[in-house]
Structure formats: structure tokens, C-alpha cells
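Aim 2, interim progress: modelling of the MU-OXO-diiron-bound target.
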Amino acid sequence: MTHLELMKDVYYVGYVDFEVRNFHGYSTHKGSSYNAYIVKSGEKTVLIDAVKRPYYEYFLSNIKHVCDPSEIDYFIVNHVEPDHSGSFPLILKHLPNAEIIASTRGKEILEAHYHEELDKKHFENIRAVKEGDTLEIGNGKQFTFVPIPMIHWPDSMVSFMSDENGKNILFSNDAFGQHFATSKRWDDENDIAEIMWEAEKYYANILLHLSGLITKAIPKVGALAIDIICPSHGVCWRTHIGKILEAYTKWSAGKTDGKSVLIVYDTMWGSTEKIAKALYKEIIHRGISAKRFRLTNADYSDVITEAMKAKAILVGSPTLNNGLYPLVAEYLSYQKGLKPMNKVGMAFGSYGWGGGAVKEIIKELEETKIDVMEEKIEIRFVPRPEDLDFKNIVDKLVEKMG
Ligand code: FEO
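Predicted structure of the complex, ligand included:
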């Protein structure tokens, strides 16, 4: 028995990263983890995934707590992004007897990443698996490999282990993950509301633009007799599997929280903020839920999570140099990449002479395939009280939200 034992025959050998606060631009307020696992069948030993390169020593030490690394027969690489494969070239030196298994694209992308460090023979010997390929490891345990291209990279796959004598486990890699650091490895050992929020934020920031593919993948995953999901980030799922599958179905379908509004803006001398606050007041007076974020004080990873759920996204910017205020431009660019679905949009802002920001907002929203209202709000310099009467425009917004 070791503290790394997750359940019978399955061990956690990853790294919990309490310090990370920025994951390629995504704000990780609660850290993250790079999960890796070892499965033992009594006949074979399998390592599943690796960790970010800086945590290689910790990873190796965990493996050594569980087994002699030379006893590892198979090393499954579900995904090559460096948060999982960064330590791949280093750990290989300790796995002289392991056959490496990856998807066909994984084999190719491993070489594209690590050709400087490893001989060609390392890549030639990788077993490339395709959908439905299996690996028997003895004592009733069998892996089935299912590529899930673009969830999150072209190489991504999941490995499903059926076990005649135990639990069936889906090693899902990025899917169903959360950027969340905890010493408690199971969903039901943590606050489930907190875990679901992090899963939602993870979906919004990493997977939202891939929703079309996820919609197709969910039934495939749902058809497996899963008892446990072990992702590559955050906690493992054993009690709330139905909840996370249902949430993925909802998020990937672009379902929103009824009539709800996100107001996102920045302000230079306070005029655009006055518009944002007046819109908010008019909306909530009608019993419609609304959230308001000033981008100077909010980070776009949190805001996009709200954008995924809202029915309407109202974006405000003052005009600066005939165009957008910088943080608004940054947010709109991020939002355009992630493509939130089924949204109504509206632009507002203040200007001094020529204007330009509102026009730019509309262009960005349209390129995001958001259904932009014809109506817009543009106010010169400082709004007068009568300029802030938004009854008519909010009527139209409510109508458009359906
Ligand atoms: Fe967690 Fe796509 O890497």
C-alpha cells in the first residue's frame, strides 16, 4: 500500500501543481495537475501519460514508489501537448522494456516534438493504434483505444480499460479535466460545485470551439460501461460521472441559461461604464439575470466562461485612436477563437469625435457568428440622463433573446 494507490491495481504518479497561475494564457486561480497513472494486472504494468517537463524528477520518484521502472511493459501516450509529454524524452531512459503506444497522429507528433533529443528508432518503434484497437494485459484487463481528434489536438485519444474483476476506467486525458490542484483525488472528496465550475471554465477556455466534434464524441464515450473517469487534469470522477457527461452534452450543444446577459466592457474616463451600468439596471429590473465585467479588473478566462452560459453578450468600449480600447480588443479576439454558440450580441461605447470602437465591436461579433442587433449605443463624451434611458433597446434585446 502506498499513498499513491488510487484504487486496487491503479496508482497516481502525476504532479499536482499548486503554484501555476497561468496555463498558456488561461488563468488557473486554483492551480492544476498533470495526471499520470500506472495500472498493474499482475502480468503486465502500464504507464499512462506523463507530466510537464519541470516535474520530471517528481514523476520518476512516484513511479519508483509503485514499481521498478524497468518493469513497465507499456507506456500509453494519449496526447502529446507538452503539459503531458514534456518529460517523455527523459522518462524513456528509465523504461528500457516499455512499448510506446500512441494514436497514428500521436506517433507523428511525438517525433515532431522530440526529434532533437531522441533517435529515429524511438519513433519507428511506437505502436500506432486506431479506433477499437485493443491491448490485453492479463487477469481480465483490456485496453481499448479510441482516438478523439481535436479534443484537444489531432493526436488526442482516450484509453478505456475494461476489467472483468474490477472497475472499468476511462483514461480520458484532457476531456473531463479541470485546472484544479488538490491532494484529494476524487470528485466526491471535494466540493462538487467548485469542481463543476472549474470543469466548466476548462471547457469554455480549451474545448468550446471544438464543440461540434465533442457532440459527436459524447455518445461514443457514453456507450462505454464506465465506472471511473481518470482525466489528465484535476480530480477523477467516480460519483458524478452522469453529472459531467450531462454537462458536456449541454455545453457542446451551446445551451444557455435561459434569458441571461453578460455585459463586458472597459472604460477610459467613465462614460462607457455609465452605459454598462444603465444597461445592467434596465435588464435586471425585468427579472433577467445579468453579470457585468470591466476588463481592467477581470481576466478573460473567467469572462469567457460566463459568455458560454449567457444568451446575450453586450460588449462596450470607448474609442481610442479610432478603434477599440486594448483590453476589449484582446477579449474579442479571444472570444472569436473560442466561438461561443447561439448568442445575441450588441455593441455600445462612448467617443469624442470620429468614433470607431462600436463599429469594430460589431465586426468582431459578426465574425464570431454572433447574431448582432441592428441597434447599438454610441454616446459622445459624457452621457446625459436622457441618453441613459435604454427601455426601448432592452425591449428589443429581450425580444431577440426569444
Ligand atoms: Fe492538457 Fe491539450 O493538454
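The pocket of MU-OXO-diiron is lined by residues 79, 81, 83-84, 152-153, 174, 232-233 (CB under 6 Å). The chain is about 35% helix and 25% strand.
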